[in-house]
Amino acid sequence: MISGIIVAIIALPLSITLALASGVTPEKGIRLILSHTNEQPMHMMEKAGFDKRIGKEYFCKHIDDALALAERIAAK
Description:
4 helices
């Protein structure tokens, strides 16, 4: 259990860093959907402009919303 939590703590910042470095944008057909983003990480992503870069519509309050969005994208 602890190792899973550690991986999640490390994986999210690392994945965001890699996404930014690789130029991830919806226009390139790559989407990153986030859910349950806590206030402090969200503030940092807004400050860095990451929310605008990937699109505010890809930040979901609940996992069910994120999954529904992913299904709609995949259906296109």
